[in-house]
Amino acid sequence: MKKVKSIVLICAGLMTLAACNNQGLKKTKSGLLYKIISSGKGDLVKKGDFIKLDFRQKLKDSVLFTSAGGLPAYIRVDSSGPNYTVTEILPLLRKGDSVVVIQLADSIQKKSGQPLPPYIKKKDKIILSLKVTDVFPSGELANLDREKELQKQKDIEIKAIEDYIAANKINVQKSSKGVYVVVDSVGDGPAVDSGKQVSVFYTGKSFPAGKVFESNVNGPRNEPIKFVVGQHQIIEGWDDGLRLFKKGGKGTLYIPAYLAYDAQPGPSHKPFENLIFEVRVVDVTDAPKLDPKTMRPMVVPRGANPQGQPSAPKK
């Protein structure tokens, strides 16, 4: 809660500064506007250090990216020329510092030579709020800390699913990697296993609301999705959870985010998103032989639609 409050206060302070025609802001050589609002104690970071940052990036009233409820950022401090990015500011910081940075959209376009995304207008200001929560002298130490943060995030995801399952008295099995599986019917055909091609009908739902975000059961895309187990063609939660079924099997997968899209925005455009999939395994066959030159199936199965396959929940 303290982390969220600190970011909100930084943003509020910056909005006051921005409303006063950037009064009180400093400027880097490239023209990047910034202000260090609260100064921590200790020495300035050094070249080669790794900074651990809580962050929040805003455009008007919309939050584009934030570490709140997720993972902090880890950035290496290095010599940086006038590149109109936050890396220009990093050498000015120390552990405990909070800073706000303003990028002008038209300046981003001019300096990058690239067109702006459609949701950003030339007169917009992009506001980045940062807080330096720790500094590490090496990448190894930064990675150790990141692993601890990852484990904390995994624990949060797992607890959310387990609490939901307990509250709703759902009978589940847990797969080897941590997918919570409701097995309505195991099936009586060949088992789902590495090297097998499986065909699956599915309905994807948000967690915990259960709102459908995608399905190939009904509508114009009502063909089963096909993929080879163990070939990383699908999110890991599917690759692992479906192994509890055979051909004809039916059930529900409760997938923690680390076995789905992890920090990448998921179907609901949020990072670290747990997911629910209702699945029905309609076929399990040997994987198609691959052409050694192209590493693609040598024969397209009858009825397949290689140009219009349903969008699998791939990584």
Describe the protein.
The strands form 2 sheets. Strands 1, 2, 3, 4, 5, 6 and 7 form a 7-stranded antiparallel beta sheet that branches. Strands 8, 9, 10, 11, 12, 13 and 14 form a 7-stranded antiparallel beta sheet that branches. The chain has helices at about 1-20, 105-110, 140-165, 235-240; strands at about 25, 35-40, 50-60, 60-65, 75, 100-105, 125-135, 175, 180-185, 195-205, 210-215, 225-230, 250-255, 275-285. It has 4 helices and 14 strands. The chain has about 325 residues and is α+β, with helices and mostly antiparallel strands. The protein folds into 2 domains: about 1-135, Chitinase A, domain 3; about 165-285, Chitinase A, domain 3 (Roll). Strand 8 (about 175) and strand 9 form a beta hairpin. The chain is elongated.
CATH C-level of the largest domain: Alpha Beta
| Helix coverage percent | 10-25%
Radius of gyration: 24 Å
Number of helices: 4
The percentage of residues in β strands lies in 25-35%
Uncertain segments: 1-20, 297-312
Instruction: Report how far apart the termini are.
Output: 31 Å
**CATH topology (fold) name of the largest domain:** Chitinase A, domain 3
| Overall 3D shape | elongated
The ordered H/E elements are: HEEEEEEHEHEEEEEHEE
Strand tally is 14
Mean pLDDT: 85
Per CATH, which architecture of the largest domain?
Answer: Roll
